[in-house]
Amino acid sequence: MSDDSTDDFEQLPEDVALAVEIIRQIENLGYDADTVLKAMSHICLDTLAKLSEEDRLNWQKKLCQSLASN
């Protein structure tokens, strides 16, 4: 990675930078899309379970809206 792209990466919001890093790692592992999506579902469910009920419901709504808009 060049210095310019490293600087650009460091300027990203934390959530976007994490997403980019996760995407890179997943691509390097070479799993098919179905396996990746199933794994991401497990990750979302695990993370949601660690939230308060109010936060969990808010995030479930956000996630559904995000998926529906794509």
Architecture overview:
The chain is mainly alpha-helical and 70 residues long. The protein folds into two domains: 1-30; 32-70, no CATH class. Helices cover 84% and strands 0% of the residues. The protein contains four helices and no strands. It has helices at residues 3-11, 14-29, 33-49, 53-69. The protein starts with a helix and ends with a helix. The model has no long low-confidence stretch (mean pLDDT 91).
Give a topology summary.
Layout lengths: L2 H9 L2 H16 L3 H17 L3 H17 L1
Keywords:
2 domains; 70 residues; mainly alpha
How large is the radius of gyration? 15 Å
Task: State the distance separating the first and last CA atoms.
Answer: 29 Å
Residue stretches low in confidence (pLDDT < 50, at least 5 long) are none
Number of strands: 0
Q: β content, as a range?
A: under 5%
Question: Would you tell me the overall average pLDDT?
Answer: 91
> What kind of oligomer do you see?
single chain
User: What's the main sheet like?
Assistant: none
